[in-house]
Specification:
The protein is of the alpha/beta class and 262 residues long. The protein has eight helices and twelve strands. A hairpin with a 2-residue loop joins β4 and β5. The protein starts with a strand and ends with a strand. The protein binds adenosine-5'-triphosphate (ATP).
């Protein structure tokens, strides 16, 4: 099954081309990383996938629904969203458990009745990420890394088919970052794992569970496919405009930086 099918998508704002003729298919069973510099169009592509922006040209099909011919709000219920920005959007006085439960309703704060089943499920998700002991702590008092784990559990509460991770490790120290990455690795390997889409400009965050990568430069796809074939020194030099060398270690790519390429 195709999870995302993007055909000939271009997006222009104020005469500025932001996405240029993007073609991309993501099949079930694959987990993708989207790589590109600041301003290369990563967030814009995510907005197309979640239907918050509309392409100037081309077609978008997500989880079998063609945008323009479906109820996008229904599709969004199957898409989980985790970003670093979400850390600041939750109510600091809600407990970690309440924040996780709110994922069921895709709401900020808890406004609906919750059941014993919801509380158990949220508790189990926190436990999966080693956070059970913090379930009654106020969200605002948690560390950045703990908040991000709570937000991952929150996204999984609604059992999404597609999980979008938009720079989830932004602002985390190396220990917290590795903990969140380990949780993602574990999530992607679950039997009922959602398809994961990880957006970053730090390629060393691409865990072994990610199978494919799409490299963007100035709104254009310069490489897309199996990660070892796409995350090459040549492609990343092209994408980043500096001399870089990629080295793989334990199936993770690491980057060494040389001189600027003109
Ligand atoms: N709604 C909009 N109107 C006009 N320009 C926009 C709009 N959204 C994005 N852009 C521009 O499109 C380009 C791509 O932005 P986008 O946020 O998609 O990049 P990005 O790869 O996600 O960058 P970052 O890593 O900094 O988040 C940028 O130059 C940005 O200023």
């Amino acid at each position: 099954m195709k999870v995302i099918e993007i055909e000939g998508v271009s997006w222009t704002r104020n005469d500025k081309p932001i996405l240029k003729q993007v073609d991309w298919t993501l099949q079930a069973g694959e987990h993708w990383a989207i790589i590109g510099l600041n301003g290369s169009g990563k967030t814009s592509l995510l907005k197309m996938i979640t239907g918050y922006e509309w392409p100037s040209r081309g077609s978008i099909r997500v989880l079998g629904h063609t945008y323009g011919r479906c109820e996008i709000r229904e599709v969004r219920k199957k898409i989980g969203w985790v970003s670093s920005a979400l850390r600041d959007e939750m109510y600091p006085s809600d407990t970690a458990l309440e924040v996780v439960i709110s994922g069921k309703f895709a709401s900020i704060g808890l406004w609906d009745q919750t059941s014993e089943v919801d509380r158990d499920k949220a508790g189990n998700l926190l436990e999966r990420f080693g956070m059970a002991r913090l379930k009654d702590e106020r969200f605002g008092t948690l560390s950045q890394g703990e908040k991000q784990k709570v937000l991952l559990a929150r996204a999984l509460m609604a059992e999404p088919k597609l999980l979008i991770l938009d720079e989830p490790c932004f602002g985390l120290d190396i220990k917290a970052r590795e903990e969140v990455l380990t949780d993602l690795e574990q999530t992607g390997r679950l039997e009922q794992a959602p398809t994961m889409l990880y957006v970053t400009h730090h390629i060393e965050e691409i865990q072994p569970v990610f199978t494919h990568a799409l490299v963007l430069r100035d709104g254009e796809v310069i490489a897309a496919g199996e990660k070892h074939r796409t995350l090459t020194s040549a492609n990343l030099r092209d994408a980043f405009g500096i001399d870089v060398q990629v080295e793989w270690s334990d199936d993770r790519p690491w980057i060494k930086v040389g001189n600027r390429v003109e």
